[in-house]
Amino acid sequence: MEMKQKPGFSLIEILAVMAVIGILAAITFGMFKSSQESTRRRIAEADIALFKLKLNDFRLDEGFMPTSANIPILRVAGADQYDPNPGSDGYFAAGRRLFLALSGRSTQDLLDGRDRTEDGKAYIRFERLRVGDPEVHGAALPPQYRETYLDEAFDRGSWVKDPWGNPYGFYFHERASLQSLHGKTVADIWSTAGESAESDIARARWISSWKK
Length: 212
Known about the structure:
The chain is mainly alpha-helical. It has one domain. 36% of the residues lie in helices and 8% in strands. The protein is built from four helices and five strands; from the N terminus they run αββααββαβ. The protein has helices at residues 11-62, 89-102, 107-112, 200-204, and strands at 73-76, 79-82, 169-171, 188-191, 207-208. The strands form two sheets. Strands 3-4-5 form a three-stranded antiparallel β-sheet. Strands 1-2 form a two-stranded antiparallel ribbon. The radius of gyration is 24 Å and the shape is elongated. It starts with 10 loop residues before the first helix and ends with a strand.
């Protein structure tokens, strides 16, 4: 008795199916990455809006804006621009100053040896995941402030983290006629959105408190 052969797939058919699966996987991955990036940008925009609001509360309570001029200003194509590298010491020092103010402690509190977090005077209570490793770039903190950051939750050098894991940019120089670079009499706050390149295209992706 003759056995009938079962129909099978040819090599070309198998390769075609694999190609279709690969294309669908690439499209799905691309959509996921795009959605993830959009979510990060929305979080950064919301963070910056909240930081601006709470820093205004800080100024009303304390009578001054926390000063941070650690991030270098570069002359690029005839215009002043902030250093684009969020991994620099200046960014970590600025992120600590932002954390210091928003978590309820002012520079004057540090000089007086007071810790305002004990009486609940915190403008934002950060979750642990929202602040960076206190041991990263520890030397960037001015020596007179290093030990006074100490508390159980954040240790001595925590900094505010953007959705890409970098410090938020924060710049306000009270001694220079209340000038920041873009905001003038208000603090500049920004995220480089994961970029570190020195280019107009990279800077266009930044999320900032100033109008582009």
